[in-house]
Amino acid sequence: MPALLLLGAGIHAGDRELGVEVQLYPTGVVNAVGAKIPLGDDASLTFRAGYNSADRDDNGEHADEQGGGPGVSIGYRRMLFDADRGWFAGARADVWLLEIDWIDMPGSPGETRGTSDVIVLQPTAAIGYRQPFGKDRQWNFEPAVSLGVEWNVDTDGADVGQGLILLVGASVSRRF
Fold first, then answer.
1. Is residue 9 part of a domain?
2. Tens digit of pLDDT for each residue in 70-90?
3. Which of 62, 63, 118, 164 could be joined to 102 by an S-S link, Cβ 3.0–4.6 Å?
4. In the predicted model, what is the mean pLDDT of residues 6-28?
5. Other residues' Cβ atoms within 10 Å of the Cβ of residue 56
């Protein structure tokens, strides 16, 4: 599966971060780059751009669904106990432009194939842990778990899978 790259933003006022992130979910992988812009000592606004690869097998509306596409995100993060390291919570809204190839009744005389272009809105809430490392602690490692929903807001073609989503990921970012 492809890797997800995410760029993150800084937590301290005046700091900004850039980084890469990988998120795995039961039927896919998100790779992104992102940035974080501080909103004070313990909060930040996050942005990312990435690629979402889906291999839903029979977990969608059809016997097999596979595809992917680019997307962007905006979010908010708050450190819970310490402004520099430790637990954080946040929320993010992603918009994905997916092209999903699907098959029904594969290998049978009634096999049907198609492609659906889908605009997905994916709001999620996350909890994670921030661990600075390296010289002058300018690098950060952040594992996180997110829970949300994939909502197909526009579909050109047959309906494809949507619903609850659980993502597990990690990012590495550097302060500038």
1. no
2. 999 999 999 999 888 999 999
3. 62
4. 72
5. 19
Tokens of 168: 């597990």
Is residue 3 domain-resident?
no
- Given a contact cutoff of 8 angstroms between Cβ atoms, the answer to whether 17 and 45 are in contact is no
Assessment of whether the complete model's pTM goes beyond 0.90: no
Range in 12-21, 35-44, 113-122 with the lowest mean pLDDT: 12-21
Host domain of residue 118: 17-175
Round to whole Å and give the CA distance between 76 and 79. 10
Q: Is residue 8 in some structural domain?
A: no
Residue 6 makes CB contacts below 8 A (sequence gap 6+) with 19, 20, 21, 22, 23, 32, 33, 34, 48, 50, 169, 171, 173
State the CB neighbour count (10 A cutoff) for residue 154.
Answer: 10
Q: Is 11 left (phi over 0), alpha (psi -120 to 50) or beta?
A: alpha
> Smallest Cα–Cα separation from 149: which of 121, 171, 169?
121
- Beta carbons of 70 and 51 less than 8 angstroms apart: yes
Q: Which helix (H) or strand (E) holds 6?
A: none
Q: Can you read off the two tokens belonging to residue 108?
A: 């049978």
CATH number, residue 46: 2.40.160.20
Is the Cβ–Cβ distance between 9 and 37 less than 8 Å?
yes
